[in-house]
User: What shape does this take?
Amino acid sequence: MQWETVIGLEVHVQLATQSKIFSGASTAFGAAPNTQACAIDLGLPGVLPVLNEGAVAMAVQFGLAIDAEIPETSLFERKNYFYPDLPKGYQTSQMAQPIVGKGEVEIVLDDDVRKRVRIHHAHLEEDAGKSLHEDFHGMSGIDLNRAGTPLLEIVSEPDMRSAKEAVAYIRAIHAIVTYLGISDGNMAEGSMRCDVNVSVRPKGQETFGTRAEIKNVNSFRFVERAIEFEVERQIELIEEGGKVVQETRLYDPDQDETRSMRTKEEANDYRYFPCPDLLPVMLDSAYVEHQRSTLPELPTDKRNRFETDLGLSTYDAGVLSATRPMAEYFEAVLAVCGDAKQAANWVQGELSGHLNRENIDIRNSPVTPEQLGGLIQRVLDDTINGKAAKQVFAALWNNEGQSADEIIEARGLKQVTDTGAIEAIVDQVIADSPVQVAQYRDAEPEKRGKMIGYFVGQVMKASRGTANPQQVNSVLKQKLDEA
Amino acid sequence: MAIEHADVLRAAHLARLGLNSDAEAAGYVDDLTQILEMVDRLQAVDTEGVAPLSHPLDATQRLRPDEVTERDQRERFQACAPATEDGLYLVPRVVE
Assistant: This one.
Protein backbone atom coordinates (compact mmCIF):
# COMPACT_ATOMS: atom_id res chain seq x y z
CA MET A 1 0.00 0.00 0.00
CA GLN A 2 1.06 3.59 -0.67
CA TRP A 3 1.14 5.74 2.46
CA GLU A 4 0.96 9.47 2.88
CA THR A 5 2.54 11.28 5.80
CA VAL A 6 0.71 14.19 7.44
CA ILE A 7 2.67 16.57 9.67
CA GLY A 8 1.68 19.58 11.74
CA LEU A 9 4.11 21.54 13.88
CA GLU A 10 3.97 23.58 17.03
CA VAL A 11 7.04 25.77 17.21
CA HIS A 12 7.83 27.51 20.48
CA VAL A 13 9.93 30.60 19.87
CA GLN A 14 11.59 32.30 22.80
CA LEU A 15 11.14 36.04 22.33
CA ALA A 16 14.18 38.28 22.67
CA THR A 17 12.79 40.59 25.34
CA GLN A 18 14.96 41.98 28.13
CA SER A 19 12.44 41.12 30.83
CA LYS A 20 9.87 38.39 31.40
CA ILE A 21 6.39 38.33 29.94
CA PHE A 22 4.65 39.28 33.19
CA SER A 23 7.47 40.55 35.43
CA GLY A 24 10.52 42.80 35.43
CA ALA A 25 12.97 39.92 36.01
CA SER A 26 15.78 39.51 33.48
CA THR A 27 15.66 36.86 30.75
CA ALA A 28 19.44 36.75 30.19
CA PHE A 29 20.76 33.26 29.47
CA GLY A 30 23.19 31.48 31.77
CA ALA A 31 22.67 33.26 35.11
CA ALA A 32 23.20 31.42 38.42
CA PRO A 33 20.13 29.32 39.35
CA ASN A 34 17.08 31.23 40.61
CA THR A 35 18.76 34.64 40.58
CA GLN A 36 16.34 35.76 37.86
CA ALA A 37 13.15 34.35 39.36
CA CYS A 38 11.21 37.11 41.11
CA ALA A 39 8.08 36.96 43.30
CA ILE A 40 5.77 37.07 40.25
CA ASP A 41 7.64 34.25 38.48
CA LEU A 42 7.48 32.20 41.67
CA GLY A 43 3.74 32.81 42.01
CA LEU A 44 4.03 34.10 45.56
CA PRO A 45 0.76 35.26 47.14
CA GLY A 46 -0.39 38.79 46.41
CA VAL A 47 1.57 39.41 43.23
CA LEU A 48 0.01 40.77 40.08
CA PRO A 49 1.34 39.98 36.59
CA VAL A 50 1.58 42.91 34.14
CA LEU A 51 1.99 42.16 30.44
CA ASN A 52 5.27 43.15 28.72
CA GLU A 53 4.68 45.52 25.79
CA GLY A 54 7.85 44.22 24.08
CA ALA A 55 6.42 40.69 23.91
CA VAL A 56 3.15 42.02 22.49
CA ALA A 57 5.00 44.05 19.84
CA MET A 58 7.06 41.01 18.79
CA ALA A 59 4.01 38.77 18.51
CA VAL A 60 2.22 41.38 16.40
CA GLN A 61 5.27 41.79 14.14
CA PHE A 62 5.35 38.05 13.57
CA GLY A 63 1.63 38.08 12.77
CA LEU A 64 2.10 40.84 10.22
CA ALA A 65 5.06 39.02 8.67
CA ILE A 66 2.88 35.98 7.94
CA ASP A 67 -0.07 38.06 6.70
CA ALA A 68 -2.15 37.04 9.67
CA GLU A 69 -5.14 38.81 11.06
CA ILE A 70 -4.39 40.58 14.38
CA PRO A 71 -7.63 40.46 16.37
CA GLU A 72 -8.54 43.59 18.29
CA THR A 73 -9.01 41.61 21.50
CA SER A 74 -6.99 38.73 22.84
CA LEU A 75 -7.21 36.94 26.15
CA PHE A 76 -4.91 35.18 28.57
CA GLU A 77 -6.02 31.91 30.10
CA ARG A 78 -4.69 29.54 32.69
CA LYS A 79 -3.65 26.07 31.63
CA ASN A 80 -3.71 23.99 34.79
CA TYR A 81 -1.32 21.17 35.55
CA PHE A 82 1.07 20.21 38.31
CA TYR A 83 4.79 19.92 37.82
CA PRO A 84 7.58 21.18 40.10
CA ASP A 85 9.05 23.52 37.47
CA LEU A 86 5.67 25.27 37.19
CA PRO A 87 5.46 27.04 40.55
CA LYS A 88 1.97 28.50 40.13
CA GLY A 89 0.30 25.21 39.23
CA TYR A 90 -0.78 26.73 35.91
CA GLN A 91 0.83 28.16 32.82
CA THR A 92 -0.51 31.51 31.67
CA SER A 93 -1.26 30.98 28.00
CA GLN A 94 -3.85 31.78 25.34
CA MET A 95 -6.38 29.49 23.72
CA ALA A 96 -9.79 30.88 22.78
CA GLN A 97 -8.60 34.27 21.54
CA PRO A 98 -4.88 34.23 20.66
CA ILE A 99 -2.96 37.36 19.70
CA VAL A 100 -2.22 36.19 16.12
CA GLY A 101 -4.91 34.65 13.89
CA LYS A 102 -4.69 32.61 10.69
CA GLY A 103 -1.69 33.25 8.46
CA GLU A 104 0.56 31.66 5.85
CA VAL A 105 4.25 30.88 5.36
CA GLU A 106 5.97 30.11 2.07
CA ILE A 107 8.47 27.26 2.15
CA VAL A 108 11.08 26.46 -0.48
CA LEU A 109 11.75 22.84 -1.42
CA ASP A 110 14.26 21.19 -3.74
CA ASP A 111 14.34 22.47 -7.31
CA ASP A 112 12.89 25.76 -6.11
CA VAL A 113 9.42 24.24 -5.68
CA ARG A 114 7.43 26.55 -3.41
CA LYS A 115 4.56 25.63 -1.15
CA ARG A 116 2.34 27.53 1.24
CA VAL A 117 1.86 26.23 4.77
CA ARG A 118 -1.12 27.61 6.65
CA ILE A 119 -0.66 28.83 10.20
CA HIS A 120 -3.65 28.08 12.42
CA HIS A 121 -2.72 30.76 14.97
CA ALA A 122 0.15 31.93 17.19
CA HIS A 123 -0.23 32.71 20.87
CA LEU A 124 1.78 34.18 23.72
CA GLU A 125 2.59 32.15 26.79
CA GLU A 126 5.13 31.86 29.56
CA ASP A 127 7.89 29.27 29.72
CA ALA A 128 8.32 26.94 32.70
CA GLY A 129 11.47 26.48 34.79
CA LYS A 130 13.96 23.64 34.51
CA SER A 131 14.13 20.41 36.46
CA LEU A 132 17.57 18.96 37.06
CA HIS A 133 17.36 15.25 37.62
CA GLU A 134 20.88 14.70 38.86
CA ASP A 135 20.73 13.11 42.23
CA PHE A 136 20.41 15.63 45.03
CA HIS A 137 20.11 13.06 47.86
CA GLY A 138 17.16 11.44 46.08
CA MET A 139 15.62 14.85 45.28
CA SER A 140 15.37 16.87 42.04
CA GLY A 141 16.75 20.41 41.72
CA ILE A 142 14.59 23.21 40.31
CA ASP A 143 15.89 26.33 38.56
CA LEU A 144 13.13 28.85 37.88
CA ASN A 145 15.17 31.43 35.95
CA ARG A 146 13.40 30.43 32.75
CA ALA A 147 9.94 30.56 34.36
CA GLY A 148 8.00 33.47 32.87
CA THR A 149 10.21 33.86 29.79
CA PRO A 150 7.96 34.91 26.90
CA LEU A 151 7.24 32.30 24.23
CA LEU A 152 5.38 32.64 20.98
CA GLU A 153 3.83 29.30 20.10
CA ILE A 154 3.24 29.05 16.36
CA VAL A 155 0.74 26.34 15.42
CA SER A 156 0.63 25.17 11.81
CA GLU A 157 -2.17 23.38 10.02
CA PRO A 158 -1.36 19.73 9.15
CA ASP A 159 -0.13 20.85 5.72
CA MET A 160 3.26 19.13 5.49
CA ARG A 161 3.63 15.81 3.70
CA SER A 162 7.26 14.81 4.39
CA ALA A 163 10.10 15.29 6.85
CA LYS A 164 11.80 17.52 4.27
CA GLU A 165 8.78 19.82 4.12
CA ALA A 166 8.69 19.99 7.91
CA VAL A 167 12.36 21.01 8.02
CA ALA A 168 11.81 23.60 5.26
CA TYR A 169 8.93 24.99 7.31
CA ILE A 170 11.01 25.29 10.48
CA ARG A 171 13.77 26.96 8.47
CA ALA A 172 11.23 29.44 7.11
CA ILE A 173 9.97 30.24 10.63
CA HIS A 174 13.57 30.52 11.84
CA ALA A 175 14.38 32.96 9.02
CA ILE A 176 11.29 35.10 9.75
CA VAL A 177 11.87 35.39 13.51
CA THR A 178 15.58 36.12 13.15
CA TYR A 179 14.98 38.67 10.35
CA LEU A 180 12.43 40.37 12.59
CA GLY A 181 14.93 40.20 15.44
CA ILE A 182 12.20 38.88 17.77
CA SER A 183 14.28 35.80 18.69
CA ASP A 184 17.91 34.78 18.48
CA GLY A 185 16.68 31.47 17.03
CA ASN A 186 19.40 29.59 18.87
CA MET A 187 18.12 26.01 18.90
CA ALA A 188 20.98 24.64 21.00
CA GLU A 189 20.07 27.04 23.83
CA GLY A 190 16.39 26.16 23.48
CA SER A 191 15.27 29.42 21.84
CA MET A 192 13.30 27.36 19.33
CA ARG A 193 11.64 24.07 20.30
CA CYS A 194 9.28 21.98 18.22
CA ASP A 195 6.46 19.60 18.95
CA VAL A 196 5.79 17.51 15.87
CA ASN A 197 2.40 15.90 15.17
CA VAL A 198 2.78 12.95 12.81
CA SER A 199 0.23 10.59 11.29
CA VAL A 200 0.01 8.39 8.22
CA ARG A 201 -2.92 7.48 5.99
CA PRO A 202 -3.37 5.39 2.85
CA LYS A 203 -2.73 7.58 -0.18
CA GLY A 204 -6.00 9.03 -1.43
CA GLN A 205 -7.81 8.76 1.90
CA GLU A 206 -9.39 12.01 3.06
CA THR A 207 -9.59 11.53 6.80
CA PHE A 208 -6.43 11.83 8.88
CA GLY A 209 -4.90 8.86 10.67
CA THR A 210 -4.40 8.89 14.44
CA ARG A 211 -1.47 11.12 15.28
CA ALA A 212 1.37 10.88 17.71
CA GLU A 213 2.97 14.00 19.12
CA ILE A 214 6.77 14.06 19.39
CA LYS A 215 7.76 16.56 22.07
CA ASN A 216 10.66 18.95 22.33
CA VAL A 217 12.72 18.26 19.25
CA ASN A 218 15.42 20.90 19.16
CA SER A 219 17.43 20.78 15.96
CA PHE A 220 16.64 20.77 12.24
CA ARG A 221 18.35 17.42 11.85
CA PHE A 222 16.50 15.80 14.77
CA VAL A 223 13.15 16.98 13.39
CA GLU A 224 13.88 15.18 10.14
CA ARG A 225 15.12 12.01 11.81
CA ALA A 226 12.36 11.89 14.42
CA ILE A 227 9.70 12.16 11.70
CA GLU A 228 11.36 9.53 9.53
CA PHE A 229 11.54 7.10 12.42
CA GLU A 230 7.97 7.79 13.53
CA VAL A 231 6.50 7.39 10.02
CA GLU A 232 8.22 4.05 9.60
CA ARG A 233 7.03 2.91 13.04
CA GLN A 234 3.41 3.82 12.32
CA ILE A 235 3.33 2.19 8.88
CA GLU A 236 4.88 -1.00 10.23
CA LEU A 237 2.43 -1.04 13.13
CA ILE A 238 -0.61 -0.66 10.86
CA GLU A 239 0.64 -3.16 8.28
CA GLU A 240 1.06 -5.71 11.06
CA GLY A 241 -2.59 -5.22 12.01
CA GLY A 242 -1.99 -2.86 14.92
CA LYS A 243 -3.38 0.59 15.64
CA VAL A 244 -1.61 3.89 16.26
CA VAL A 245 -2.65 5.33 19.62
CA GLN A 246 -2.82 9.05 20.26
CA GLU A 247 0.08 9.69 22.59
CA THR A 248 3.04 11.84 23.38
CA ARG A 249 6.43 10.47 22.37
CA LEU A 250 9.96 11.59 22.98
CA TYR A 251 12.73 11.51 20.38
CA ASP A 252 16.00 10.04 21.63
CA PRO A 253 18.82 11.19 19.34
CA ASP A 254 21.28 8.65 20.78
CA GLN A 255 19.10 5.66 19.90
CA ASP A 256 17.55 7.47 16.89
CA GLU A 257 14.04 6.42 17.91
CA THR A 258 10.87 7.80 19.47
CA ARG A 259 9.49 6.39 22.72
CA SER A 260 6.10 6.67 24.34
CA MET A 261 5.95 9.15 27.25
CA ARG A 262 2.40 8.89 28.49
CA THR A 263 -0.95 8.31 26.91
CA LYS A 264 -2.86 11.53 26.44
CA GLU A 265 -6.14 9.92 27.47
CA GLU A 266 -7.96 13.12 28.37
CA ALA A 267 -7.16 16.04 26.11
CA ASN A 268 -9.05 18.58 28.22
CA ASP A 269 -7.31 17.80 31.47
CA TYR A 270 -5.90 21.31 31.51
CA ARG A 271 -9.18 23.04 32.45
CA TYR A 272 -8.38 26.33 30.71
CA PHE A 273 -10.18 29.37 32.07
CA PRO A 274 -9.66 33.13 31.64
CA CYS A 275 -6.90 34.42 33.91
CA PRO A 276 -8.57 36.73 36.43
CA ASP A 277 -5.29 38.60 36.99
CA LEU A 278 -4.99 39.72 33.37
CA LEU A 279 -7.51 41.90 31.59
CA PRO A 280 -8.35 41.51 27.89
CA VAL A 281 -5.58 42.88 25.66
CA MET A 282 -6.90 45.46 23.21
CA LEU A 283 -4.79 46.42 20.19
CA ASP A 284 -6.16 49.21 18.04
CA SER A 285 -5.34 49.63 14.36
CA ALA A 286 -2.97 52.54 15.08
CA TYR A 287 -0.84 50.22 17.24
CA VAL A 288 -0.86 47.46 14.62
CA GLU A 289 0.01 49.91 11.83
CA HIS A 290 2.83 51.31 13.91
CA GLN A 291 4.24 47.78 14.29
CA ARG A 292 3.85 47.25 10.55
CA SER A 293 5.97 50.34 9.90
CA THR A 294 8.87 48.81 11.87
CA LEU A 295 9.03 45.59 9.80
CA PRO A 296 12.25 44.97 7.89
CA GLU A 297 12.26 43.42 4.43
CA LEU A 298 11.36 39.75 4.99
CA PRO A 299 13.32 36.72 3.72
CA THR A 300 10.92 35.78 0.92
CA ASP A 301 10.71 39.37 -0.36
CA LYS A 302 14.47 39.74 -0.21
CA ARG A 303 15.00 36.51 -2.08
CA ASN A 304 12.58 37.53 -4.81
CA ARG A 305 14.16 40.98 -5.11
CA PHE A 306 17.67 39.49 -5.34
CA GLU A 307 16.42 37.33 -8.18
CA THR A 308 14.31 39.80 -10.15
CA ASP A 309 15.94 43.17 -9.49
CA LEU A 310 19.57 42.13 -9.08
CA GLY A 311 19.47 39.31 -11.63
CA LEU A 312 20.96 36.69 -9.32
CA SER A 313 20.32 33.00 -9.90
CA THR A 314 17.66 31.29 -7.80
CA TYR A 315 20.38 29.45 -5.94
CA ASP A 316 22.45 32.57 -5.18
CA ALA A 317 19.36 34.51 -4.11
CA GLY A 318 18.42 31.67 -1.74
CA VAL A 319 21.86 31.41 -0.15
CA LEU A 320 22.33 35.16 0.22
CA SER A 321 18.91 35.74 1.78
CA ALA A 322 19.03 32.69 4.07
CA THR A 323 20.01 34.68 7.14
CA ARG A 324 19.76 38.36 7.86
CA PRO A 325 23.46 38.82 8.67
CA MET A 326 24.38 37.17 5.35
CA ALA A 327 21.94 39.37 3.42
CA GLU A 328 23.12 42.51 5.18
CA TYR A 329 26.77 41.70 4.46
CA PHE A 330 26.02 41.05 0.80
CA GLU A 331 24.03 44.25 0.44
CA ALA A 332 26.78 46.28 2.11
CA VAL A 333 29.35 44.84 -0.32
CA LEU A 334 27.01 45.61 -3.22
CA ALA A 335 26.55 49.19 -2.01
CA VAL A 336 30.32 49.74 -2.31
CA CYS A 337 31.12 47.84 -5.52
CA GLY A 338 27.84 48.20 -7.43
CA ASP A 339 28.06 44.78 -9.13
CA ALA A 340 25.61 42.21 -7.73
CA LYS A 341 27.02 39.19 -9.55
CA GLN A 342 30.60 39.91 -8.40
CA ALA A 343 29.44 40.68 -4.86
CA ALA A 344 27.48 37.39 -4.81
CA ASN A 345 30.47 35.40 -6.10
CA TRP A 346 32.90 36.86 -3.58
CA VAL A 347 30.57 36.52 -0.60
CA GLN A 348 29.67 32.92 -1.42
CA GLY A 349 33.11 31.95 -2.66
CA GLU A 350 36.23 33.38 -1.09
CA LEU A 351 34.52 34.89 1.97
CA SER A 352 32.26 31.94 2.89
CA GLY A 353 35.16 29.55 2.23
CA HIS A 354 37.36 31.36 4.73
CA LEU A 355 34.52 31.75 7.27
CA ASN A 356 33.59 28.06 7.11
CA ARG A 357 37.17 26.88 7.31
CA GLU A 358 37.78 28.86 10.49
CA ASN A 359 34.21 28.45 11.77
CA ILE A 360 33.60 32.20 12.08
CA ASP A 361 30.16 33.81 12.03
CA ILE A 362 29.75 36.33 9.19
CA ARG A 363 28.94 39.01 11.78
CA ASN A 364 32.52 38.63 13.07
CA SER A 365 34.21 38.46 9.68
CA PRO A 366 37.76 39.85 9.77
CA VAL A 367 37.13 41.30 6.30
CA THR A 368 34.50 44.04 6.45
CA PRO A 369 31.94 44.48 3.67
CA GLU A 370 33.53 47.86 2.88
CA GLN A 371 36.95 46.21 2.43
CA LEU A 372 35.53 43.45 0.22
CA GLY A 373 33.53 45.98 -1.81
CA GLY A 374 36.72 48.03 -2.28
CA LEU A 375 38.58 44.94 -3.46
CA ILE A 376 35.87 44.08 -6.00
CA GLN A 377 36.01 47.65 -7.33
CA ARG A 378 39.67 47.13 -8.16
CA VAL A 379 38.84 43.91 -10.01
CA LEU A 380 36.05 45.64 -11.92
CA ASP A 381 38.21 48.56 -13.03
CA ASP A 382 41.03 46.16 -14.05
CA THR A 383 43.49 47.53 -11.50
CA ILE A 384 44.22 43.94 -10.45
CA ASN A 385 43.57 40.57 -12.02
CA GLY A 386 41.72 37.66 -10.39
CA LYS A 387 44.86 36.03 -9.11
CA ALA A 388 46.11 39.18 -7.39
CA ALA A 389 42.60 39.73 -5.99
CA LYS A 390 42.83 36.47 -4.08
CA GLN A 391 46.16 37.57 -2.62
CA VAL A 392 44.65 40.88 -1.58
CA PHE A 393 41.70 39.08 0.02
CA ALA A 394 44.06 36.84 2.01
CA ALA A 395 45.99 39.90 3.17
CA LEU A 396 42.78 41.63 4.28
CA TRP A 397 41.70 38.43 6.07
CA ASN A 398 45.02 38.33 7.94
CA ASN A 399 44.75 42.02 8.78
CA GLU A 400 47.88 42.88 6.81
CA GLY A 401 46.42 46.12 5.51
CA GLN A 402 43.50 48.47 5.97
CA SER A 403 42.17 48.45 2.42
CA ALA A 404 42.58 46.74 -0.93
CA ASP A 405 44.20 49.88 -2.36
CA GLU A 406 46.79 49.98 0.41
CA ILE A 407 47.71 46.31 -0.12
CA ILE A 408 47.83 46.64 -3.93
CA GLU A 409 50.15 49.63 -3.60
CA ALA A 410 52.42 48.11 -0.94
CA ARG A 411 52.82 44.81 -2.79
CA GLY A 412 53.01 46.15 -6.31
CA LEU A 413 50.07 44.04 -7.46
CA LYS A 414 48.79 46.59 -9.90
CA GLN A 415 47.98 44.84 -13.12
CA VAL A 416 50.38 45.47 -16.02
CA THR A 417 48.28 46.49 -19.02
CA ASP A 418 51.04 48.31 -20.88
CA THR A 419 51.37 46.29 -24.12
CA GLY A 420 55.03 47.18 -24.52
CA ALA A 421 55.87 45.80 -21.09
CA ILE A 422 53.91 42.62 -21.70
CA GLU A 423 55.53 42.11 -25.12
CA ALA A 424 58.96 42.40 -23.53
CA ILE A 425 58.15 39.65 -21.03
CA VAL A 426 56.60 37.47 -23.74
CA ASP A 427 59.70 37.84 -25.94
CA GLN A 428 61.89 36.83 -23.02
CA VAL A 429 59.77 33.74 -22.26
CA ILE A 430 59.78 32.68 -25.94
CA ALA A 431 63.54 33.09 -26.09
CA ASP A 432 63.97 31.00 -22.91
CA SER A 433 61.75 28.11 -24.08
CA PRO A 434 63.00 26.95 -27.50
CA VAL A 435 61.85 23.33 -26.99
CA GLN A 436 58.27 24.26 -26.05
CA VAL A 437 58.10 26.80 -28.85
CA ALA A 438 59.13 24.17 -31.41
CA GLN A 439 56.55 21.70 -30.04
CA TYR A 440 53.87 24.37 -30.20
CA ARG A 441 54.63 25.30 -33.77
CA ASP A 442 54.64 21.62 -34.85
CA ALA A 443 51.27 20.96 -33.25
CA GLU A 444 47.91 20.94 -35.01
CA PRO A 445 46.16 24.30 -34.58
CA GLU A 446 43.34 22.72 -32.47
CA LYS A 447 45.88 21.37 -29.96
CA ARG A 448 47.66 24.69 -29.57
CA GLY A 449 44.92 26.12 -27.36
CA LYS A 450 45.87 23.78 -24.55
CA MET A 451 49.62 24.14 -25.07
CA ILE A 452 49.56 27.90 -24.74
CA GLY A 453 48.78 27.46 -21.06
CA TYR A 454 52.42 26.72 -20.34
CA PHE A 455 53.54 30.06 -21.79
CA VAL A 456 50.79 31.99 -20.02
CA GLY A 457 51.98 30.47 -16.74
CA GLN A 458 55.57 31.48 -17.41
CA VAL A 459 54.64 35.05 -18.34
CA MET A 460 52.41 35.41 -15.25
CA LYS A 461 55.21 34.06 -13.08
CA ALA A 462 57.75 36.45 -14.60
CA SER A 463 55.37 39.36 -14.00
CA ARG A 464 54.73 38.19 -10.41
CA GLY A 465 51.08 37.70 -11.26
CA THR A 466 50.47 41.28 -12.30
CA ALA A 467 50.16 40.92 -16.07
CA ASN A 468 46.66 41.14 -17.51
CA PRO A 469 45.91 37.51 -18.48
CA GLN A 470 43.72 38.38 -21.49
CA GLN A 471 46.46 40.59 -22.93
CA VAL A 472 49.11 37.98 -22.24
CA ASN A 473 47.02 35.45 -24.12
CA SER A 474 46.55 37.53 -27.22
CA VAL A 475 50.17 38.74 -27.37
CA LEU A 476 51.43 35.17 -26.98
CA LYS A 477 49.11 33.85 -29.70
CA GLN A 478 50.20 36.55 -32.04
CA LYS A 479 53.91 36.00 -31.46
CA LEU A 480 53.86 32.19 -31.42
CA ASP A 481 51.67 31.88 -34.51
CA GLU A 482 53.79 34.47 -36.35
CA ALA A 483 56.46 32.14 -37.66
CA MET B 1 -26.32 17.73 34.11
CA ALA B 2 -25.82 15.17 36.82
CA ILE B 3 -22.51 14.75 38.61
CA GLU B 4 -21.41 11.42 39.93
CA HIS B 5 -19.09 10.11 42.56
CA ALA B 6 -16.45 9.27 39.93
CA ASP B 7 -16.54 12.83 38.53
CA VAL B 8 -15.80 14.23 41.96
CA LEU B 9 -12.87 11.85 42.44
CA ARG B 10 -11.47 12.79 39.04
CA ALA B 11 -11.80 16.55 39.64
CA ALA B 12 -10.20 16.12 43.05
CA HIS B 13 -7.32 14.21 41.51
CA LEU B 14 -6.74 16.88 38.84
CA ALA B 15 -6.68 19.59 41.51
CA ARG B 16 -4.54 17.38 43.79
CA LEU B 17 -7.15 17.53 46.57
CA GLY B 18 -7.09 14.66 49.04
CA LEU B 19 -10.59 13.50 49.97
CA ASN B 20 -10.60 11.67 53.28
CA SER B 21 -13.70 9.56 52.97
CA ASP B 22 -16.55 8.48 50.74
CA ALA B 23 -18.78 10.66 52.90
CA GLU B 24 -16.66 13.71 52.06
CA ALA B 25 -16.87 12.90 48.37
CA ALA B 26 -20.62 12.42 48.66
CA GLY B 27 -20.89 15.89 50.22
CA TYR B 28 -19.16 17.35 47.14
CA VAL B 29 -21.49 15.42 44.87
CA ASP B 30 -24.44 17.16 46.54
CA ASP B 31 -22.82 20.64 46.52
CA LEU B 32 -21.65 20.45 42.95
CA THR B 33 -25.01 19.08 41.79
CA GLN B 34 -26.68 22.17 43.24
CA ILE B 35 -24.18 24.47 41.56
CA LEU B 36 -24.70 22.76 38.23
CA GLU B 37 -28.46 23.06 38.64
CA MET B 38 -28.03 26.78 38.96
CA VAL B 39 -25.86 26.78 35.84
CA ASP B 40 -28.58 24.85 34.03
CA ARG B 41 -31.07 27.56 34.96
CA LEU B 42 -28.69 30.21 33.58
CA GLN B 43 -28.37 28.21 30.36
CA ALA B 44 -32.05 28.88 29.73
CA VAL B 45 -31.35 32.60 29.20
CA ASP B 46 -31.17 33.60 25.55
CA THR B 47 -27.59 34.82 24.99
CA GLU B 48 -27.77 34.96 21.21
CA GLY B 49 -25.53 37.80 20.01
CA VAL B 50 -23.95 38.44 23.42
CA ALA B 51 -20.15 38.24 23.47
CA PRO B 52 -18.76 35.95 26.19
CA LEU B 53 -17.54 37.88 29.22
CA SER B 54 -13.96 37.05 30.05
CA HIS B 55 -13.54 39.56 32.85
CA PRO B 56 -16.04 41.37 35.06
CA LEU B 57 -14.16 44.69 34.97
CA ASP B 58 -14.83 46.98 32.06
CA ALA B 59 -11.15 47.71 31.50
CA THR B 60 -8.30 46.54 29.30
CA GLN B 61 -4.84 45.27 30.09
CA ARG B 62 -2.20 47.86 30.88
CA LEU B 63 1.17 47.14 29.26
CA ARG B 64 4.53 47.39 30.98
CA PRO B 65 7.66 48.68 29.17
CA ASP B 66 10.19 45.91 28.47
CA GLU B 67 12.70 46.79 31.18
CA VAL B 68 14.45 44.79 33.87
CA THR B 69 13.23 46.19 37.19
CA GLU B 70 13.67 43.21 39.51
CA ARG B 71 16.88 42.47 41.33
CA ASP B 72 18.08 39.15 42.67
CA GLN B 73 16.33 38.25 45.94
CA ARG B 74 17.06 34.54 45.86
CA GLU B 75 18.19 34.35 49.46
CA ARG B 76 14.99 35.91 50.78
CA PHE B 77 12.79 33.71 48.61
CA GLN B 78 14.68 30.57 49.50
CA ALA B 79 14.53 31.28 53.22
CA CYS B 80 11.00 29.85 53.28
CA ALA B 81 11.73 26.88 50.98
CA PRO B 82 11.83 23.47 52.70
CA ALA B 83 15.08 22.45 50.95
CA THR B 84 17.62 24.16 48.68
CA GLU B 85 21.10 23.35 47.43
CA ASP B 86 23.51 25.22 45.13
CA GLY B 87 20.81 27.84 44.60
CA LEU B 88 18.30 25.22 43.45
CA TYR B 89 14.95 24.46 45.06
CA LEU B 90 14.86 20.76 45.98
CA VAL B 91 11.69 18.77 45.42
CA PRO B 92 10.78 15.09 45.66
CA ARG B 93 12.28 13.33 42.69
CA VAL B 94 10.30 13.66 39.46
CA VAL B 95 11.02 11.12 36.80
CA GLU B 96 8.94 10.84 33.72
Notes: Residues 220-239 of chain A form the longest helix (20 residues). Chain A touches chain B through 53 residues (CB under 8 Å). DSSP finds 16 helices and 16 strands in chain A. The radius of gyration of chain A is 30 Å.
